[in-house]
Every structure is written in structure tokens, then in C-alpha cells.
Fold:
Amino acid sequence: MGVPSFYRWLVSKYPKIVVNAREEKGGEDRVIDTTQPNPNGIEFDNLYLDMNGIIHPCFHPDNHLFPPTSFNEVFESIFEYIDRLFGIVRPRKLLYMAIDGVAPRAKMNQQRSRRFQTAKQAELAEAEEEKLRREFEFQGKVILPKMQSEVSDSNVITPGTEFLDKLSKALKCYIRSRLNNDPGWKDIKVILSDANVPGEGEHKMMSFIRLQRNRDGYNPNTRHCLYGLDADLIMLALATHEVHLSILREHVATLEQQPSCTLSLETSLSKQNVYSVKSRGWFGKVHQANGGASLAKMPFQFLNIWTLREYLELDMTIAEPPKDFLIDFERIVDDFIFLCFLMGNDFLPHLPSLEIHEGGIDLLMAVYKREFKSMGGYLINTCRLRDKHAAYIKLKRVERLILAVGSCEDKIFKKRSEIRKRNLERVVREMFEAMGEEDVDNGEVNSKYLPNAPSLESNGLSTIRCSETDVLNNTKEFKQKLKEMLRQKSDLFKNGNPDKVNLCSEGWKARYYKAKFSVEKPDEIESKRKEIVQKYVEGLCWVLRYYFEGVCSWSWYYDNHYGPFASDFKGLGRSRINFQLGTPFKPFTQLMAVLPPRSADALPEAYRTLMTCPDSNIIDFYPTDFEVDTDGKRYMWLGVTLLKFIDEKRLLLEIEKLENKLKDEEVRRNAMGLEIIFVRASHDLGSQVSSLCRRCVLASGNEQIINKVKIDTKKSGGLNGFLIRCNEQSCMDDSSSPVKGMEYTINNDVLCAMFENPPFDYHIPEPPKNVTMPEKTITEADIEERPLWHECNGSQRQNR
Structure:
């Protein structure tokens, strides 16, 4: 979901939702026996891995002197990571691995923005790195050289690339190895949803849970554990209304001492660590807070959804409901999720007046409880998500709530401006103080960049002998100094960044519309206001359906870079909302939609000229330079990347001309796939899987190969869906291994088939029938009453 600071806000406000994970420590001489009872006192049935939360930190780990240089090294780190997560959770029935596949168009715009900005930051970082290398050479400090690397561009972590194709093969090999050799795996089912299966990883996981629950054979007390770094997992988990659900994440207790505004651009000796700050940037902070520990060393926490539900039940109490109105807590949970959408996500920009670190969610919750009676009830009804008239959203109620929030905008903008002014004054004062010290100590303030510094050879320094320790220490110093230089460069307060719109003074709304939407006359502003509010409300409905039932339109997207003000939400009752489902892009089409020219090598050779050749009919989609709007922002990465939105028809037309030039292997990578299920032959489900390879005799006497069977839930442990005969190519059932050191098992006892979920059924927005509710542990004393940020004195930001 990409909600900055949401996890920190949640843990700060509801601290008892997290508990430290206990785990056994393995070693060279000791292998953890995962068949033993879970040391956390909970026996989990199913473990779900959002694999992109594992792939990214293994691909470009922060603060590592020796980052991986090959795909194989990355795969080994991923396997080590999964082993550790498995050892903590110890699932008894199912392990589900989901890699991001092709995303909805609404998400691609955010992916495109992030990847283009990554490329721009990489160019700047390389220039600064070269300057600093010359400085270290001039000083005679020997550091590790740049290394040739297969993993220099993190943009290859996108569906359709050779990297993710090889990762899929590697994971199939890994799964077989563990099922064959690890006793803790022998009785579980493993489902792999790789990058050829459309959908974001976390949404594929949650779709699986939604389609399994409340069906024949499903145990209402199934214990689920999800692993992932994105805040949207929390919202998605709440939206399932499953009670026995936990989210496993890296421990963040030590981060509370660090202000969230100090997230810095990470870089390594190669360019691989330059990336946008989202979950990966947050992961880097975890890594630093734990003393630069390796991925296998970092502590974990469980976030328990049942405890969060207890907090919400008390904190979202409606003091004065409408007369004869019976409060349904499950509807309150759904409304809370909807409120969080207003804070912005990967599909919609946030409302300009709402920031989490300024108490934005606290404000929404306070207004919701205060206005509930006058609104007449709940904001949404997820029982009616398929209603063609969008009856699942009560637009008049939403309008009343958001306009009530809008009445606070003047105070919010005024206080924000005052804090910005004080921060700017402090930064300038510190700069002058630092410059004064440099003048006294060094004589020349600008000498640190040494733009014309001679090389080692010209200074006779090439013969200096350095010990291995000296080289490592110098390299550590180099990396730390480079990181600080990049952070300084990206600090817009220190480089002069005027607030052009100036939201705290009279006329702020007119200036905003002129600066962001190029409209100035009152009638033009009003027309634009209606247009973007309508589109934004469509977006809220799209996100609502996406989180509660899945994609309702693959092609819809919000076609503006900015959102409206809360005070603009007038006339919502007249909105008409309708979505057409459409179909997802193919993987190569998504690559063309989101990658910058710098990452052209990740494309099939036939496609590369479309984004690099000046004569390309769509070259305007791939600018090498573009504007980043940092108005009112302190750091470059917080800015809005002003890229042209992709014209789907033009893109598809050009791609269609080249599809016949694809190689056979590329055609396979560009195809849509199904999930694959793995079990040992001794598993109860093994007989059904093996039956797919047999022939049956029909009543007519003819033979027919069985290609698809409905899963027997008694044999599967409650798993519903269908098994489809697996071909050798999709399941990689051969004698070769793509991973060095993980050769194919000769005595293979693992069977596999393609897996298909049961057909769509209406989601029931309440806990499963006959579920055993956990004993309650939260009381009124645990609820923290906070003053609203814009109403309290001082500049302290909330929920750091």
C-alpha cells in the first residue's frame, strides 16, 4: 500500500499488538528440528510469504562490504531467509510463496515513477561516487574496487525478466530439496505463485485466503501467518475478518529513536543500492538499527491481528449512535480500513492535508466517531461489492466526513508551515556553524570534493602497502561518507527549496490548482475540482474492491499526479461509478510500461529499441530527464515524479509488431501461468496428484488422460480448488538444477501439479462460523487518548 509511517503509527498507538518472536538458534553443528513444538507457543497451520519482501533485501542488502554479484548468491540468501522464517513459524499444513506478477494498471504508474526516479538517483550517485573515489585516491586510502555484477540493477525484480524466471526455477529446486530432505517439510503442501501468475504478491496471498475460507472442509480456527514488509498487509489481513492471523515482520523497536524524515538514499560500491524509499528503505533502517547485522541475524516480531481487533473495538467505540442503531463491529473494521485509504497508497495520492506523522489517522478516527450519528451510519457495505450502482459506498456519508476533515485544513497548513520555517532556520544555522568550523580547521570549505585530484599513480602513492584490515576500514569509511554525501545532496532544505504554493497564506487553493493543474480562472478551477474529485472517488471505490475482493478493473488508473483537498469533496452523491474488468498486461508489456531506458537490458532484445531509438513511435514514453516536483518537501525522493502516463493503445500497437521476433524462451517468459503445488508422494494428497498422469477408461471403452481434478478436501487437509496436470516445462521436472550446490535429488519423492483456486464466491465480511475467539487481553486503560496534532502546541510530530 505504500503508506509511509503507518506501521510505526500503529505500533505506537497499539503497542500490545506486537510480541517478540522466539526462535531456536542453529549453527554449523546444529540443525533446527522444525518438527518440534513451536517455541512461540502457537502452532501455525499456514505460512504465506510475500517474496518481494525477501528478494529485495537479498538482492541489494544495505551496508554490506561484499554485496552479492551473481544471481546464484542472491538465490542462496533467499533460501537462507526462507529457512529462517520457516524455523520461526513452523507451518504444519501449507507454505504459500507469492512473487509479484503483473500488477493492475493503477499500480504500474507508481512502479514506473519509482523505477524512473531510481535510475535518476543512480546517475547522481555514480557521479558522487567517482568524486569521492578520487578524493580517497588523493589521500592514499586504498579501498575495494568496483566489482562486475549480475545484480547491479534492482529494476530486474519485475515480472518478465530473466532474473525472476531463473528465481522461479531456483525456488522449484529449493522446494523439492526441502520436501525430500527436511523432516519439518514432509507433511506440508507448498504452493508457488511465481511472476508469471498475475497479481501483486500480497494480494495473491489474500485472494487465496478469501477463496478458501467458509468452504467445505475449511477449519474456522486455521492459524495463518503472513510475512511481508508492506503496510497494506495489515489492512488486507483486517479485511479478511479472519481472527487467528499474525503478521511476521522484522523488529522495529529500535527505530523509534530515529526520526522518519532521516531515511536516506542507500548506495553500495556498485550502483545496486540506489532505490526508492519504500519497504526496502525501511528494511535498511532495520538493518542499521541492529548494528548492520546480516539478514539471518535480525530479530522478528509477530503482529497479532486478533489483538489489533480488540484495540479497534474499544478505540472506535461510537458514543452516540443513531437511535435504535445496533453497532456491528465488523462494519466498523471495514470503515477503519476505508479511512486509511484516504492517507494515500500505491494507487492514489494522499489528500494534501493528511499526513500520518501529523496525526492524520487520529484525525480521521476522531471525525468518524464524532460524525457517525449525523452521517446516519457506516461509510461502506462490503456485502454489496458487486452492486452495479456502487451501493457498497455511501457517498453522502463519505462527503460529510471528508468535508468535516477539510474544515481543519487551514489550521493544519498553518502549523505545518510554522514547523517547516523553524526546521529550515535550524538547518541553515547548522550549515553556517559547520562551514565556520571547516574554515578554521581546513582553510577551504570546498576542498572536500577535490574535482581535479590527481590519481594514485601521479602522486607516487600506488606503491603504498595496505593491510586487508586497512582496506576494509577504508571501504567502510568510503561507503559511510558516500551515503552521507548523497543524503546531504538530497536534503532540499540545505540546497534551497522554496515552498511555491505556500498553503498557509490566503489564496492557497487557487495557487495549488494553478501550480499542479495549470488552471487559474474560477470557472476552470471549479471544473477541474469536479473532475479530479470524481476520479478520486472512483479510485477510492477501486481500492476498496481491490482490498476486499480482488481486481475489479485491470486497466483503470488515477490519471493525475496530485489529489484534491478534503474541502473539495462536494457533490459526491451525483457520482456514477462503473468498472470494466478487462485483462492484465503480459509481462513484457508491463516491462515496457514501467522500466526506464537505463534498464533496457532487462527487456527482450527485440523490444529494446522501442525505448532507446530516437525513431521509436513511443520514444516520448521514455524521457532520460524529467521533472520531480519537490514543492514543500525536504528530500528529493519525497517528490512527485512528473512522468507522462503511458498510452495503453499506442504501447500495445507497437509491441504487437514485435511479438513474432521473440525467441521461444522469451515467449514462455511472456506467458501467463498458474500456481504450482508440491507434495511428497506419501502425503494424503499425493494419490490425487499422481492420478493426473494416468489414463482412465471411459464407458465407451476409449482411454482418456485425466488433466484436471477437483481436490478432495479430506485428503488435502481442507484445501479447496483444482489440480491440473503439470507439463515438464512449467514444473521443471528434469534432472538439471539452476542452482549451484543444490543438485537435483536422484531419489525424488516430490510430486507437483498446477493449482487453481476454487471459483469466486462472495466474500463474507465476518469471522468464520464456529470460530473460537481468543481470550481478550485489552482494556480501556490500554487506549491512549491523543490530542489532535493541529490543535496542540509545539512542533512535535506524532508517531515517529
